[in-house]
Amino acid sequence: MKQSVYINSVGSVSAQKTFDNSFLDDVVLHNDTVINVIAPNYKEYIPPAAARRMAKGIKMSTVSAKNAMQEAEVAEDEIDAIIVGTGLGCIGDSEKFVSDIIDNNEQFLTPTRFIQSSHNTVAGQIALGIGCKGHNFTYVHSAISFESAVLDAKMQIEENEAKTILVGGVDELVDHHISTHRLIGHIKKEAVETMSILKSGTSGAVFSEGAHFFVLSNEKKSSCYSELVALKTFNVLSESQVSDETSNFLMEQGLTEESVDLIIMGNNGDNDFDSYYDSLSKGAFKNVAQAYFKHLSGEFDTASGFGFWLANMILKQGKVPASVQLNEKRAESVQTILIYNQYRGENHSLTLLKKC
Amino acid sequence: MSELKQELKEKIIEQLNLEDVAVDEIQDNDPLFGEGLGLDSIDALELIVMLDKDYGIKLADPKEGRKIFESVQTMAKYIEENRSR
Question: How far apart are the CA of B46 and the nearest CA of chain A, in angstroms?
């Protein structure tokens, strides 16, 4: 018999003040084309000797993972596995390492940047920090990196291969990454105000960064946020296939569009690709309460981790903040949430959560 | 020699990301590893690369490093005697 999968805690470092687990009480309004995280004081979480070799992505992840573990009240030796999703890993050190190779004619390469230039350094550093010798895996799969990590954890818990898993998604913003994405037009040319992003009418997205970690378990703890019911990813879908695949996904769970209390979507204000979301919001979900999140989190490969965090907070706290509401519909009580995300028409994901 | 020691202290702080350490907190004879600055084996590799890149000194035997990297004083002395740039 398959085990149920519970999300017992959340941890977030994002472009909003989420590191203290507050729930968008004061939305940070940006007006830019790239936005950085609202960083905690890392020294409160990480000893200076350890922090000195940590890239920004590792620091964000360490804080986020620590908060999640603390809230779930799991001891370090209770974590059976650490699974992380990341689009670009610690790209800052990757860039420095490659620059060193070029600048120094392939000589004088230092170990620290090499260690941090690998994608799996985040999961590795967290494991070293807590002494976890269990399954340690990193998924690198563009906009479904985070979902791939969650799916692996879900399957392991369902099949009783693990009881408690720390799962997360992380990506960091660095200069070269920004300049190349500006060059290819993936970043908006003009600054956009946070709450006006869907009205921008222009191409590209507002880029950002963040780290989101969760403790998933077969045991429902008092801190429980939700039950992870189903998750599916797709590499390529046409706009017309999105509705059909969403219907099929819900049908497999004995649900219809109307029985979902809230749909959370990853609209990022990109005029060329938000139509994928419109196919749901103006179609089968037009009578369902809708929310969006990338105006608050910005766009990055694992931005859906913020969407996952938002869904869990809504289910636990029983309220949908006004700042994320997309339409006029309001659910009386939010019991079931569907998250739909994609980036530039590729790497689509559907995640179904229910209140526990 | 004192200029070189000052330069070494600045480089150690910068290259090893010792954010909370100031140059004047490092005494010439303070041990760099263990109880002193608390450097570790990865730092030792960073220092070996620094000797090569900045002073043209190649350490053929990494064990030599144990004596050379005892302190800023021993580092400066070794660099003065062996540097090619």
Answer: 6
Q: Using the beta-carbon criterion (under 8 Å), do A110 and B15 form an inter-chain contact?
A: yes
Beta strands A81-85 and A226-236 are unpaired
Distance of alpha carbon A120 from alpha carbon A112, whole angstroms: 14
Residue B41 or residue A350, greater confidence: A350
**Domain check: are A69 and A12 in the same one?**
yes
- Count the domains in chain A: 2
Interface test with A, best of B53, B55, B57 (most A CBs within 10 A): B53
Contact A7, A165 (CB under 8 A): no
Which positions 2-41 of B are in contact with A (Cβ < 8 Å)?
A: 15-20, 38
pLDDT digits over A310-323, tens only? 999 999 999 999 99
CATH number at residue A159: 3.40.47.10
The pLDDT, as a whole number, for residue B38 is 87
Q: In 10 A of CB A238, how many CB atoms?
A: 10
Cβ atoms of B78 and B72 closer than 8 Å? no
Write out pLDDT tens, residues A149-158: 999 999 999 9
Spatial contact of A33 and A188, defined as CB atoms under 8 Å apart: yes
Burial A324-334 (b: 16+ CB within 10 A, else e): bebbeeeeeeb
Return the C-alpha torsion angle A187, A191, A195, A198, nearest 10. -50
- Contact list in A for residue B55 (CB cut-off 8 A) is none
- Distance of residue A172 Cα from the nearest chain B Cα, in angstroms: 19
Residue A243 lies in a domain: yes
Query: Is residue A299 situated within a structural domain?
Result: yes
Residue A324 in domain: yes
Which stretches within chain A are classed as H helix? Answer: 48-51, 56-72, 91-103, 111-116, 121-130, 145-158, 175-183, 239-252, 275-279, 294-297, 304-317
Tokens linked to A179: 């300049």
